[in-house]
Amino acid sequence: MQFNKSLIAWYSVNKRELPWRNTKEPYYIWLSEIILQQTQVKQGLPYYEAFVHQYPTVFELANAKEEAVLKLWQGLGYYSRARNLHATAKYVAVELDGIFPDNYTDLLKLKGVGDYTASAIASFCFNEVAAVLDGNVYRVLSRYYGIHTPINSTEGKKVFKALANDAIDIENPAEYNQAIMEFGAIQCKPSGPDCLICPLIESCAAYRKNEISILPVKIKNKKPKNKYFNFLVYISDSDKTVIEKRVGKGIWQNLYQFPLMETEKSIDETEFLKRLNSVESFQDVTLFNSVDIVHKLSHQHLHTKFWIIKTQELPEKGTDISQIEDYAVPVLIKNFIEEFNFEYEI
Q1: Would the pLDDT of 1 be above 60?
Q2: What does pLDDT average to over the chain?
Q3: Nearest alpha-carbon partner for 161 in 193, 116, 121, 110
Q4: SS3 state at 185
Q5: How far apart are CA 114 and CA 157, in angstroms?
Q6: Confidence band, pLDDT 50/70/90 cuts, at residue 317
Q7: How many CB atoms are closer than 10 A to CB 286?
Q8: What pLDDT does residue 307 have?
Q9: Is pLDDT at 15 greater than 60 in this prediction?
Q10: From residue 1, how far is each of 97, 174, 200, 203, 208 by CA, in Å?
Q11: Which of 12, 17, 71, 210 shows a CA-CA span of 20 to 30 A to 306?
């Protein structure tokens, strides 16, 4: 049996029941694909359901405030996806009268939609012969055909895109694309795949050459940078704190955080007090976490301390502590708020 036919046959028996597989509505497919970028299904599913419930059509999403969208996205990370999601919703609703493009080329013009997402929507919704290429597909193709070209190299992207286009079932591109991604997710897993029950075992180059553990090949990324964050958590006598919006490019754009003091290295209380000059008089300063909380992002590791500063007056306009959970914040801040429990402190 052909490679693509074998995958489709496997998929018909082993596929997971997921809500976006029961529709060809472009809005829902697009929404699921944006959420699942760099996110596992088990983590993304509750977010998908929350977005569909809150914004059942592209028009509701377009009319939402960005802060509300970011709040609903909170915890998924890579917040540029949420901002692009909102921008594209507004474009489709206003400029395209709510109708998504019906082909790969035009889908690719939407903000936040790259080759993979355009291929997925085009094939799933309109049965266009457009091969998807994500991490799961790279792994399956690399192992099955025994390809050692790094998947994150310029040459690798060309090689695997050509191979993906050759392998696709032109009679049933939607089912094939779903099949190869599902196969990579639950059968040809990154580590510990059960090759003995694999329908492709007899023709898999990696299995034959005992190269399952080394394929696919990936060029190692640069070592992440270390940054040192000190968040200033003010608590005033009037039960207010300071929370501010991050502006400009960079991580957490348009999300909220406590005032930030960034240092060249991790500092102790003595050093912190030397640098603290935003409040002329404060009643007490305590360190919430004695050991730095290390928050790992793709290109940087944030070594974080939360300093609790009790004061009569705030250095700037304050926010009622009772309202702090209304703000869209990074998961690092969210976890602190939940653990610190402001209500108990005040």
Answers
A1: no
A2: 92
A3: 116
A4: helix
A5: 13
A6: confident
A7: 11
A8: 94
A9: yes
A10: 45, 19, 10, 10, 18
A11: 71
- In sequence order, what E strands does the chain have? 225-236, 240-241, 244-245, 256-257, 260-263, 284-287, 293-296, 300-311, 319-320
CB-CB contact of 167 with 131 (8 Å) = yes
Annotated catalytic residue: which of 33, 128, 175, 182?
33
Q: Cβ(241)–Cβ(316) under 8 Å? A: no
147 φψ region: left (φ > 0), alpha (ψ -120 to 50), beta (else): beta
pLDDT at 33: 96
Number of CB atoms found within 10 A of residue 92's CB: 22
pLDDT at 343: 59
Question: What is the secondary structure of 50-85 as a DSSP string?
Answer: HHHHH-SSHHHHHHS-HHHHHHHHTTS--THHHHHH
Which residues 6+ apart lie within 8 Å of 309 measured at CB? 232, 233, 234, 235, 276, 279, 282, 284, 285
Domains of the chain: 3-208 (1.10.340.30), 225-345 (3.90.79.10)
Q: Which of 115-124, 207-216, 267-276, 278-287 has the lowest mean pLDDT?
A: 278-287
33 noted as active-site residue? yes
CA distance 164 to 130: 9
